[in-house]
């Protein structure tokens, strides 16, 4: 059994950040997004993982993720030459898989409790494919399973106009080697209207050709931080769940820390108040400032004479002399926000790409 995790995609819903940053490496609760699926795969006991990448990205992805040994895994990097959809990610991995069954885990989905039960269901039931579904109030923007009166899966439809249920096809898919037949022959699957090969079409091909497709309903919490609002919400949820309150740096006597606050090594906290849940990376300086709940601050950030809450600060951000509270914001690597003196409103909401400068 092997795994596939994609690191490609245009990430258009996260622009402007993704003009220069791969969305899989934007942090959620101070951890790169793609670390969550890697950890979930490792938790099943699978050891071999294909990481697919787009042209021009190999060196960047390798610099972030290495050979997999940090997770007890072995990574193989597989090129997806053109952005032809998620099913094409499966297709380009055929040689790598070499006949093995596999799980395909989206690189931008988080299964908070892992997916070990679904994995065991696939191993035990030995279907040709296992479709994982979860309840979602906005499933019309996702793939949706259709069942007959006997409860048997009969159809998978991408983004239907009027879904017959509240179930959505979620981002972990299981197949055995028979799946590659859907890419070959006269009745192979075809690109959708948007020019991509879709995962629901793969399952539909298996159903139509009388292969065994089981369904597993995932009842745990899963997160799909594909756009700005979802990213902030995912950051909130994971900070609530995972902040352990470990403080590895000294805090001066004029500062106050309340609630669950995690602080990394070699930080300087001076005359400031921090109210958790908050996570702060290594080598961060906070002076004369307030850091409010649901904020994650990556390494090498500097915050002075400012207020920040419910926000994500990527590495190397500088915030200095901002009169309004920076709230509900996502700020890209190396950005500088300073001398903001505008009095219009009490809060400042920002969504800023990397290495920007903001002065108002």
From TrEMBL:
The keyword Heme does not apply. GO terms for molecular function: transferase activity. It holds the Pfam family NTP_transferase. This is Glucose-1-phosphate thymidylyltransferase. Residues 2-239 form the Nucleotidyl transferase domain. SUPFAM superfamilies: Nucleotide-diphospho-sugar transferases. Keywords: Transferase.
């Amino acid at each position: 059994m092997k795994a596939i995790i994609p690191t490609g995609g245009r990430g258009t819903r996260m622009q402007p950040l993704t003009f220069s940053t791969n969305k899989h490496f934007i942090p959620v609760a101070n951890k790169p997004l793609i670390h969550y699926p890697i950890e979930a795969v490792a938790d099943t006991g699978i050891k071999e993982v294909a990481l697919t990448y787009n042209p021009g990205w190999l060196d960047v992805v390798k610099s972030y993720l290495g050979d997999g040994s940090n997770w007890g895994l072995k990574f193989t990097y597989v090129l997806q030459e053109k952005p032809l959809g998620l099913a094409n990610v499966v297709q380009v991995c055929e040689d790598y898989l070499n006949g093995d069954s596999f799980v395909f885990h989206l690189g931008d989905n988080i299964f908070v409790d892992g997916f070990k039960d679904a994995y065991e269901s696939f191993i035990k039931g030995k279907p040709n494919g296992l479709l994982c579904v979860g309840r979602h109030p906005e499933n019309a923007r996702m793939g949706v399973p259709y069942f007959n009166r006997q409860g048997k899966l009969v159809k998978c439809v991408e983004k239907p106009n009027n879904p017959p249920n509240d179930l959505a096809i979620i981002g972990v898919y299981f197949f055995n080697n028979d799946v590659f037949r859907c890419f070959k022959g006269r009745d192979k699957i075809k690109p959708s209207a948007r020019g991509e090969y879709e995962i629901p079409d793969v399952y539909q091909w298996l159903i139509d050709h009388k292969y065994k497709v089981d369904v597993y309903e995932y009842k745990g919490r899963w997160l799909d931080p594909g756009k700005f609002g979802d990213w902030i919400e995912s950051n909130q949820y994971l900070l609530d769940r995972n902040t352990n309150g470990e403080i590895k740096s000294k805090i001066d006597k004029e500062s106050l820390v309340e609630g669950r606050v995690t602080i990394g090594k070699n930080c300087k906290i001076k005359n400031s108040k921090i109210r958790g849940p908050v996570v702060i990376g290594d080598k961060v300086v906070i002076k004369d400032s307030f850091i409010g709940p649901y904020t994650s601050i990556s390494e090498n950030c500097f915050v002075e004479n400012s207020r920040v809450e419910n926000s994500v600060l990527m590495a190397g951000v500088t915030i200095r002399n901002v009169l309004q509270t920076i709230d509900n914001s996502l700020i890209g690597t190396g950005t500088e926000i300073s001398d903001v003196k505008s009095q219009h409103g009490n809060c400042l909401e920002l969504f800023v790409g990397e290495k920007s400068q903001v002065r108002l």
